[in-house]
Amino acid sequence: MKEAEKNYRIWENKNFIVESTVNSSLWDEILISDFYKKLNKVLNEIYKQLGLDNDNSKTLISISFSGDKKIMELNSCFRKKKSATNVLSFPSNNKFKNISFLGDIIFSIETILKEAKIDNKTVENHLTHLFIHAVLHLLGYDHEKEEEAKIMENLEIQILSNLKIDNPYN
């Protein structure tokens, strides 16, 4: 990939650091800007809903705004699935001094756009939902078993509702 197509960004507040790379040949600048504007509110809502406290340390999350090609490579390598998906998350839970590295999140814009269109959702709301879903994975939540899936789904619905975003599972 050409260097001009990659864009490195960092967003930080008193509790969180989010570093990201954006494949700017695939991702719309307005969508990324709007995502960053909502980031503080979304992360605070996730932590509030889960009753988590950052205990005077910062939480680091790494995001890659990518596409189907990269997601397919990672999905094949790490999950043995030869298909694209909307988001992958890789938990870390490493701590460095006062920074806790939660893990990596990788989004695929092509799959997100298709799903938003099929489900008649805005791309921004769908991306927000997928971010919440991925952060919950980084925090240890899963949906492999029906009982776990219901817990995770209910958390997502509540967080989204508090952010004034409709239930994506209706």
- The separation of the N and C termini measures 39 Å
Radius of gyration, CA atoms, in whole angstroms: 16 Å
- Mean pLDDT, as a whole number? 92
SS summary, helix count: 5
- Helix content range: 40-55%
Strand order of the largest sheet: 1-2-3-5-4
The major beta sheet can be summarized as: 5 strands, mixed
CATH class placement: Alpha Beta
Whole-number total of structural domains: 1
Query: Which H/E pattern describes the elements?
Result: EEHEHEEHHH
Q: Strand percentage, roughly?
A: 25-35%
Tell me the overall shape.
Answer: globular
Under CATH, the homologous superfamily reads Metalloproteases ("zincins"), catalytic domain
Derived from helix and strand composition plus strand pairing, the structural class reads: alpha/beta
Per the CATH scheme, the topology name is Collagenase (Catalytic Domain)
For the record, the CATH architecture stands as: 3-Layer(aba) Sandwich
How many β strands by DSSP?
5
Structure write-up:
This protein has 170 residues and is of the alpha/beta class. It has one domain: Collagenase (Catalytic Domain). Helices cover 45% and strands 26% of the residues. It is built from 5 helices and 5 strands; from the N terminus they run E-E-H-E-H-E-E-H-H-H. It has helices at residues 29-50, 68-79, 109-118, 123-138, 146-162; strands at 6-12, 16-23, 58-66, 87-96, 99-108. It has a 5-stranded mixed sheet with strand order 1-2-3-5-4, with helices on both faces. Helix 1 links the parallel strand 2 (16-23) and strand 3. Helix 1 (29-50) packs across helix 4, helix 1 (29-50) packs across helix 5 (146-162) and helix 4 crosses helix 5. The chain is globular and about 40 Å long.
